[in-house]
Amino acid sequence: MRTAEEAANRDEKVVAGFGDEWSRFTQAALSREEREKIFTDYFSNFPWYLLDDESVGADIGCGSGRWAMVVAPRVGYLNLLDASHEALSVAKSNLRDYQNVAFHHASVGEMPFDDISLDFAYSLGVLHHVPDTLGAIKVVARKLKPGAPFLVYLYYAFDNRPRWFRVVWKISDIARGIVSRLPHWLRYLVSQAIALGIYWPLARAAKLLERLGCLPATWPLSYYRDKSLYTLRTDALDRFGTSLEQRFSKGEIRAMMEAAGFEDIRFSDREPYWCAVGIKKE
Known about the structure:
Layout: H1 4-8, H2 12-24, H3 32-42, E1 56-60, H4 68-71, E2 77-82, H5 85-94, E3 101-105, E4 120-124, H6 133-143, E5 149-153, H7 163-179, H8 184-212, H9 229-240, H10 250-260, E6 262-267, E7 275-280
Parallel strand pairs: 1-2, 1-4, 2-3, 4-5
Antiparallel strand pairs: 5-7, 6-7
């Protein structure tokens, strides 16, 4: 018999960690310009033409609600779902002026929506932190109407990177395993030291190399070359503060989405990798 935690498809330590993260980084200090720039990276291949001002959808694992702030004005109604009370409180504060949103304290395995009821859904940087990623995608598919789009961002398995890059990641993953087991306050301090001592120098070096016209395509953390220190600090805690992290190749993501009942699956060709959109089969 499955436990309640298994049925909900959540890891309580991960939930607590993200509650702490979004309480510290509410995204109130993130500029509108930077938010929309990062949003565009995630949603670059999302089929907005399939939606209208009456479309009802879901932000699965909304966190601080930073992406919902951009999506909500474009649709009829947006449901924000998160397994963390703390994260949901931050999202409610960030979207307090929005009238077309609702908040649900639930995991992806407990989605409080009728089957075949949603016009769209998205889940960014969440489903690689649940025990059963395929099971989560299947639950989302059940809630969507035929023809509805689903956007998912899952950590990539460096399938488009050279071997040395994967070795560097392997070393960082050992560090993540250690840091993520620390008490929240110490985990935070260590992550901030990583942001200042590793993320910031590499990102700013990438920015300089880009200006000189010689930025290597595989430069570590080059994605952050035009991001604020606030974003670097947020993502350092996000990366090193979670005890459960799964990574998938493009082929594995396609296979999971097909198994869940999606078709016309398309991947963004820009960072962050991998952002994929699938359409619920008719």
